[in-house]
Amino acid sequence: MKEWIKKNITGKKVFAVIMGSVLVIFLSFLLIINYKSQVRLQETALVRLVHFLDTQANAAGYFYLERKTDLKNISKAREISIFFENKALGMSMAYGLKTSLIQIDRLFDSLIEERKIGKFNIYERIVFVDTENNLISDRRAEPGIHAGSLPWKDFFASNRPEPEVIALRQDGHFDILVKVPFFFKWEFKGQIFAWINLEAFFDLQMKKGEGMTQKHIFIDFGLADGASFYPEPEQLPVDRIRKAGPGEVFEFVLSEPESGATGYLAVRIPVPETSFSIVTVMPVSEAAGYSNPNHLLMAMIILAAFVTGAAFLLWTMNARELVLKTRLDEENIRKTEIERKNIELAHYRENLELLVKERTKELEQAQKELLHKAVEAGRAQFSAMILHNIGNAITPVSVNTEMLRKNGGDKILQLLFQAYDDLAGHRNDLTYYVTTDPRGMEVAAYMGSLIKSLDGHRKKTDAMVQAISAGIDYVAEILSLQRAYAPDRAEMKERVDLNRVVEDALKIQENSILKRNICLEKIFASGLPHILIEKNKLMQVIINLIKNSFDAIDGVDERRENKIKVLTYVMENRVGLKISDTGIGIEKDKLKEIFEFGVSTKGSSGFGLYYCKDFVAANNGTLELESPGPGKGAAAVMEFLL
Amino acid sequence: MGKKTGRVIRTAIGFWAVFLFIGQACGRDLPEIKASGVIRHLGVPYANFITGSGDGMDVELVRLFAGHIGVRYEYVKTSWGTVIGDLIGKKVKVAGDDVQIIGSAQVKGDIIANGFTIIPWREKIVDFSIPVFPTQVWLMARATSPVMPIIPGGDIEKDISIVKSKLAGLTVLGVANTCLDPQLYNIESTGAVPRLFPGDLNELAPAIVNNEADATLLDVPDALIALDKWPGKIKVIGPVSKTQEMAVAFAKDAPLMKDEFNRFLLKCKSDGRYIDLVKKYYPTVFDYYPGFFK
Fold first, then answer.
1. Residue from the list A81, A90, A99 with its beta carbon closest to the beta carbon of B227
2. Burial (Cβ within 10 Å: 0-12, 13-18, ≥19) of residue A92
């Protein structure tokens, strides 16, 4: 035993047991307190309910007391006495007695009109019935109300001189009456009945209610047949309610179709001055709260058992191992999660690399296409330029050729031959014919003018042939330039004389320059070192730059001398070309931007300068634009490193 | 001054005196009243027709009439004995149903309205409007009187007869020259001792209560008030007359006034003002004479 105790009972375990016990005791204490509070609250709620009903009953009692007072005062009213006085004197209705009746009517009308609860008349009908069952006076709050008659004599109470409150059930509805006997000179002469407005009374009860709804309060009018509750309830243990003592709270169960068996509370409080009672019936849960104290006790026992069991488990298990095991499990779970996430990341990374490769390929392809388009655009532009120049050259050739065809030389020759034939016909007297014969002299003179015309015609023809020849030479030159700069599929770099290429470019642009009246200044440096480059692409770049210059000149509105200056130079380790113009100029902040892809000041695709710069940069060169500002011209400066 | 001149002067004076006399003796008709801007209401304080406090059913009715014709209202207090002379400018003497002119008087008013019953001799010297109020003359006795009220038989003639049969030896008060004049109902012939009361009609009931006589004649409006004032002290024995009517009286030379008043009264009856006045002053009369108010 001692060893077992030594082995199993450690300080910590003892501490755990003590703490567990304390916890159980504390929880039990809380639950007991809660239980007692619940019980107390429910008792208080019921006491309040009874007190409330008491107040209601007293209010109702006071209401009826006032009604009794009203009728008592009426029964002592002079008007009724006068009637009986006059009647006692023998007066007849025809001669004077009726006047007294009218006064009684007015008395009753006045009471009906004066007594109100809110907008409701308290009295609905007041009658005076004499001992012979005659209705001496019958006054109503509204015509036709309480139209029925009563067996008046059954309600005479000459032996009970004080007013009484009674309830009747007639034709399925309740009538509440206050009645009082009338005595004239101590002799019973009749009964006064006053009907109470039940709705007005009930409305008064509800107004005085503290949050009670109409569904909870009933009035038991104390009728013998049991059906004397107002409002009429669906099902109530009436006998049980009536047997309960005043203020006694009792419970009963009702089966309801929707909610099944439901527990109810009922309390009955008698109404003073009457034989009525006020009854309240409500579900237990509404009156006493939704929690049953016994349920709390059960909860307490279960909780205590749970805590005790937990304490026992703690006693038997090694908490440290448990904690470590729990931590280990957590770590394993975390590690698995991390590995899973790493795998996901790796997959994601691979996918990302693939995606990047694909996108890069797509971008490169797009760039190639765009470059190809730009090159094709440049070529197309170059070809269009050549064709335009050829067209310009061919046009004068065609015109001159046509003029040659129509020049009329044949006609002069024909006339000359006619003149010769005429002279030949006068071979024998030719001298006499041409010096003396008038016709001969005319023919000789005519022949002279024909010869002069023929000479003039010959000179004209020479000029035309020369122009045709020049045109043909020009076309040949153009075509040779085209061949020289024709794009090759596998274009190779070669050593190129920049001056030569610039000169050829200007040649190609010659017509455009002439047409614009541009003054062209060429300053070519001699002995320029050759540069290793693709010749035809270089040509396209230079043509593009020259074209930009005269496009810029085209944009100038004012009349001034248009100039393009073309300068080649060598500087240290660089060969350069500068093309400057007197065109519209460029804003300073756009000088760099204009080289960006897609940017154009001319509404074109914007490839030109971008690819020019790209080509130059690819060949160890630079291409920049300079401009003092808008309206002040610009210059393109291209340099290549040697 | 010559004879002739004197004669002329005398004639002129005589002419103007006669003119003034006639003027004094003549009542005013509607045009004159409108021109003067005032209507003079001759009234004797009586029951709730003229209460003496400035109101009453007839006071309000004549005020309304004054407004109707656009003139000012003026109340002129008179007495039962002089009221007719004050209207027609003549002193009269009544003998049964006959009346004699015995002198002249100053005209003080244009209209009589104070519960003025239509009786034969009055009709001979004044013109009445259409009836304004129903009435009847009852015999009233002290409550302790041995004379008992009759039990109505449904026949007014019989009821009157029964009442008169109970009068023998009783002193019965009445007021001369009014609807309560015992002569009008042949009280003396019943064996009763008629006595003419010198005071107001309103004082008849208290006179009985004070044992100044055994019974009195009283018309219904006054009787209803008396029953209310002295309950248990007086009692109604029964009728001495058939149902009578009260109306407003005009001088015979004021037909326009009468016609205009009749038009006015019919309008009041149709628009409800008349009924309102009756309800105000005699609320119980509807039960006694419902036929009159239909």
1. A99
2. middle
Locate all alpha helices (DSSP H) within A406-497, ordered by sequence. Answer: 409-424, 430-435, 438-484
Nearest Cα neighbor of A443 from A468, A461, A425, A456 is A425
Cα–Cα dist A127/A101, whole Å: 12
Token pair listed for B189: 């012939």
H-run or E-run covering A610: helix A607-618
Residue A93 to chain B, least CA–CA distance (Å): 9
Of B148, B235, B284, the CB nearest to A99: B284
Q: Between A86, A90, A95, which is nearest B239 by CB?
A: A95
Which chain B residues in 127-146 lie under 8 Å from chain A, judged by CB atoms?
A: 138, 143
How far B152 CA lies from chain A's nearest CA (Å)?
A: 7
Please state which architecture CATH assigns to domain A50-288: 2-Layer Sandwich (3.30)
Q: Which of A223-237, B13-27, B230-244 has the lowest mean pLDDT?
A: B13-27
Distance between CA B42 and CA B77 in Å, rounded?
6
Q: How far is A124 from chain B (nearest CA, A)?
A: 24
pTM equals 0.54
Which chain A residues are closer than 8 Å to B146 by Cβ?
Answer: none
Minimal CA separation from B158 to chain A, in Å: 14
> Given an 8 Å threshold on Cβ–Cβ distance, is B148 in contact with A90?
yes
Question: What is the token pair recorded at B270?
Answer: 């149709």
CB contact under 8 A, B152 and A103: no
User: How many A×B Cβ pairs under 8 Å?
Assistant: 59
Domains A50-288 and A494-641 share a fold: no
Residue A110 in contact with partner chain B when CB distance is under 8 A:
no
Characterize the bridge pairing of strands B72-77 and B38-43: parallel
Helices (H), A126-167: none
Structural Rg of chain A based on CA atoms = 67
Per DSSP, which regions of chain B are E strands? 38-43, 72-77, 90-95, 98-104, 111-117, 126-128, 133-135, 137-142, 171-174, 193-196, 215-219, 234-239, 244-251
What's the CA gap between A241 and A220, in Å, rounded? Answer: 10
The domain A494-641 having CATH identifier 3.30.565.10: the answer here is: yes
Which pair of structure tokens corresponds to residue A145? 């109300």
Residue type, A353: E
Q: Judge: A103–B150 Cβ closer than 8 Å, yes or no.
A: no
DSSP A501-552: HHHHHHHHTHHHHHHTTPEEEEEPPTTPPPEEE-HHHHHHHHHHHHHHHHHH
Taking an 8 Å cut-off on Cβ atoms, the answer to whether A99 and B152 are in contact is: no
Series of mean pLDDT values for 10-residue runs along chain A (642 residues): 72 78 81 81 81 85 91 90 88 88 90 89 93 90 81 83 86 85 90 89 64 65 73 76 84 77 84 86 70 68 78 68 81 90 87 83 75 63 62 61 63 79 84 85 85 77 67 62 56 88 90 86 93 91 90 79 92 93 90 74 61 90 93 94 90
* Pairing of the two strands B215-219 and B171-174: parallel
End-to-end CA, chain B = 73
A89/B contact by beta carbon, under 8 A: yes
* A110 contacts on B by Cβ (under 8 Å): none
Closest by Cβ to A95, choosing from B228, B236, B287: B236
C-beta neighbour count of A314 within 10 angstroms:
16
Query: Would an 8 Å CB–CB cutoff place A78 in contact with chain B?
Result: yes
CA distances, A228 to each of A149, A218, A247 (Å): 20, 10, 19
Q: What are the sequence ranges of the domains in chain A?
A: 50-288, 348-484, 494-641
Strand, helix or coil at A441? helix
Using a 10 angstrom Cβ sphere, with 0-12 exposed, 13-18 middle and 19 or more buried, the burial of residue A424 is: exposed
Q: Does B288 touch chain A (CB under 8 A)?
A: yes
- Does the CB of A570 have a partner CB in chain B at under 8 Å? no
